[in-house]
Amino acid sequence: MLDPRRWEYVRLIDRDGHSIRNDLYHKPEETASYIIWKEGDKIYAKDGHTGQIPFSGKDAATVIQSALNALASGRTWKEMIYLKGSFTISSSISIPSYTRIVIDGVLKAGTGITDAILKTSDNTTEVEVIGGVIDGDGQSIRGIDFVTVGLSNITLRDLSVINCVLDGIRLKGITNLKINNLLVDNCGQQSLQHNIYPMRIYNGNFSNIITINSPAGAGLKMRGVQNVLITNLVSKSNQDGLVIAGGDSSEDTTENVIVDGFSFVGNSRYGFHTYDEKATSRWITLANGVIRESGQDGIALHASGTRWIDISNVIVMNSGIETPNTYNGVDISEGRWITITGCIIADLNYAVADRTQKDGIYISSDAKDIIVTGNLFTRNRGYGVNNESTRVRIYNNYYYENNLGDIVGGSVNKGTATIPNGSSSVVVNHGLHSAPSVVKLTGTHSEVKDCWVTNVTDTQFTINAPAAVSADRDIYWQAEV
Q1: Exposed, middle or buried, 473 (CB in 10 Å: 0-12/13-18/19+)?
Q2: Which regions in the chain score pLDDT beneath 50?
Q3: 267, 292 in Cβ contact below 8 A?
Q4: 3-class DSSP state for residue 286?
């Protein structure tokens, strides 16, 4: 049995040799079943119990695989392999069940490798990969590829995966997955390849993840996942920051996903994106984060099957830098039962010509059953909210310096109208998606305290005073469909 008292913090290096963070076993030579190291051009594997060296040679993958295959057959407890130093891998390493691999150095792809550096076989369970760097070295491989049938109880932590042309980490069909303290950098360099790509994950806990520099794919793309918690996620300089979608069959529903605490910065397309495959995405929470400088939309809800989505306490700013005045802070082209609350959706540029973000929120006519409340919209080049749907409730938001106005097509709007000196009425463009059923008026002077409304249409209404006013008089109004 491993002694839990042996944990302490040591180092994890990135591709430039800088220390990040890692926690390994103190003196793992005392607890590992096999200790593997390199002297000169030769690799040695020592039995941690007997002190003998049963495996050695110049091919690191062969020596490591031999040690893994020599672990106790049929075991129901985890045995540890300790990799001390840097190794060049010429073929894939397959990890069996009940195995903990601790990397204190680098596993680097060699010129002969054509598959992933680490992979599994069918029905593998109870596997941990801890520490160190997995370096694809710019070859068309994956760093970690756990996609076989019947996988369960997999842990990846305190780990860097870098320089893989294909997915940095691809995971599929896993029940009970934990990922903690992970850096993925410069992977997913070909189309449809990503830094981290989990599919059909059931019960996942992802925390403290940095995923950067995936130019052709997502920092993190999830399809057909259920019961997943993601906390403290940084996704920067990828094509998309985070993508959540249904799977490739009608049974691969994505549901019960919480994303809490994140920063999506400088991604060339979307910060957060949902879309349909053949299944829906539902019951998703996106909370407490920042999305900025996206090439297109900051948040893109582009799936008819996107349902029951809660977006709260998110800052979305300076979206649409690819083509200014084209893309929106939040773009809802499809979806139902969506709430957006407590968000700041803004462009920080003072000059209108410098603003890139078009509308703060755009809602198409195909989206339904949406609530937008308690948000701040400021300095958007278009409207704060541009709504084309008739099944939306927009109220109690705050607007400031939006170029085209606060809101168009909302269900609730308010403002200030002024009856000019010598006149007894003023026409108001209410900006709602249809004629309001209720208009509340509050006069600021005795001459306009008893005003009423006439000529209510889908675009306008008229505020009337009892008589011509003797000076400009303001009336506060609130209209609701």
Answers
A1: buried
A2: 1-15, 18-25
A3: no
A4: strand
